[in-house]
Amino acid sequence: MVSSTELDSLLSILREKLQSRKAVLADKSIRTLFSETIAEVLRERFGMSEDEVKTYIYVEGCLGKILPNEGGKVFGSRLYPDAIIRFDDGLKVAVELDWGNKNRGSKLKNALAKSGMLKLTGNFHRVAVFFFLNSPIELTSIEQRVLKFYREDLFTWLILV
């Protein structure tokens, strides 16, 4: 059984594995890398078969299926996450995948805005934004306040890779 109590641990393991593998992004898309990595983690940690992995994970264009109620509609436009992690106790986590650097912060702002909207649709309990960076960044105090708001009010985590 995959319980939502595993969420923090799962996200931490994913970050570490993705960090160690991000050099392959020149050859693979972020979605492909995420799909392969999370499938591996679920097989190793929970002993899942490939078919079982597909019931817990959806990654757009790579793995699993999205269910009709797992999207949303905002300002007349359909809204779907890049990936979804499902748990046996009903918790659903939307996942956004993006990349950039500090000098092109609009990509990070857009990823957070979309993640906030995904949470507000009411279809997801949590949202994780895996943001792949070319180089490490230091967050300003206002950026830290923004992220605190996202964590506390929108149950959304920014995971820098």
What is the gist of this entry?
The chain has 161 residues and is of the alpha/beta class. It contains 5 helices and 7 strands.
Description of the structure:
The protein has 161 residues and is an alpha/beta fold. It has one domain (4-160): Trna Endonuclease, Chain: A, domain 1. Helices cover 43% and strands 22% of the residues. The chain contains five helices and seven strands. The strands form two sheets. It has a five-stranded mixed beta sheet, with helices on both faces. It has a two-stranded antiparallel sheet with strand order 2-3. Strand 5 (92-100), helix 4 (105-120) and strand 6 (126-133) form a beta-alpha-beta unit. The radius of gyration is 15 Å and the shape is globular.
Keywords:
161 residues; alpha/beta; Trna Endonuclease, Chain: A, domain 1; two-stranded antiparallel ribbon; 5 helices; 43% helix
Largest sheet: 5 strands, mixed
Output the number of helix runs: 5
Q: Report the structural category.
A: alpha/beta
Instruction: Give the domain tally.
Output: 1
Round the Cα radius of gyration to an integer and report it.
15 Å
- What is the 3D form? globular
Q: Roughly how much helix do the residues carry, as a percent range?
A: 40-55%
What is the fold named in CATH at topology level?
Trna Endonuclease, Chain: A, domain 1
Strand residues, percent: 15-25%
Q: Tell me which CATH architecture applies here.
A: 3-Layer(aba) Sandwich
Strand order of the largest sheet: 1-4-5-6-7
Strand and helix order: HHHEEEEEHEHE
Unreliable segments (pLDDT under 50, ≥5 consecutive)? none
CATH class: Alpha Beta
